[in-house]
């Protein structure tokens, strides 16, 4: 049986994620007062929504600062404005455009257009993703003892504890892979993850600006938490700051699982499940999550404006998607460029 082309695989993957997003949104909506959700969405103060968008845009600047540090570590320093332009465009593809072309793939392509090698482009993007995930896992882990004192239902405690434990274990495995026995390291794709793990270990333990890097990796998630808190306040949800700090990071982590479109559906399900533990109504929790998603879409639209005025747009449109994917995949499957 002939295998599917990369482009067809992308289309099928997108279709599956679209169905999953729609299905999860439908399921969570069934358990809420949808009329109240609509009322909340229509009556929230515009000033509150603008503040949420402003926080998310400031978060983008912090994300850019983190990414610039990582690109410096892989030996490819970037100008701040170039990094921000690429990052905003990737958010347009991730958050707003219903496309089979992922934002990370676009980041790699635009880095390549800036003269960065495929190897360093892929490593820089992957390391950026992983350090953000590590920052989130650390935030959840630090908050877990306080969560034990706040929540007495064992089911969410077990779920969140398992997430934190899996994240910590995954981090330890990744950053030590290059020190495993050679017969294990030589197995594909372990050898490629070992190379990434070496870079992550350097970023966390050997990079001279590791403190700033880790701080930005944590700060971006605190800013998402702040955005949720602001939106919940605008809806008079009665969400305490401490509860937001404990419950929003697990929601962010679950939303990052790539099984839906930009986290839609997963985020709403997790938000309702989490915030109702501290007395927030399901309808208000759902409205908070939807507003967060809409604020993210606005940031994506800003990236869209950058993309539409970019000279890269015509070149990108002229290229076939599948060759880009083949080259990007090839970069991850063969060492290229030096790590710091």
In words, what does this structure look like?
This protein has 340 residues and is mainly alpha-helical. It has one domain. The protein contains 15 helices and no strands. The C terminus is likely disordered.
Percent strand equals under 5%
What are the secondary-structure elements, in order, as H or E? Answer: HHHHHHHHHHHHHHH
Integer count of domains: 1
Measured as a percent range, the helix fraction is over 70%
Structural class: mainly alpha
**Count of alpha/pi helices:** 15
Distance between the termini: 44 Å
If you average the pLDDT, what whole number results? 87
Mass-distribution shape? globular
Radius of gyration: 20 Å
User: What is the chains' assembly state?
Assistant: single chain
Question: Strand count, sense and closure of the main sheet?
Answer: none
How many beta-strand elements?
A: 0
Uncertain stretches of 5 or more adjacent residues? 320-340
Summarize this structure as a short list of keywords or feature phrases:
globular, 340 residues, mainly alpha, 78% helix
Task: Offer a quick outline of the entry.
With 340 residues, the protein is mainly alpha-helical.
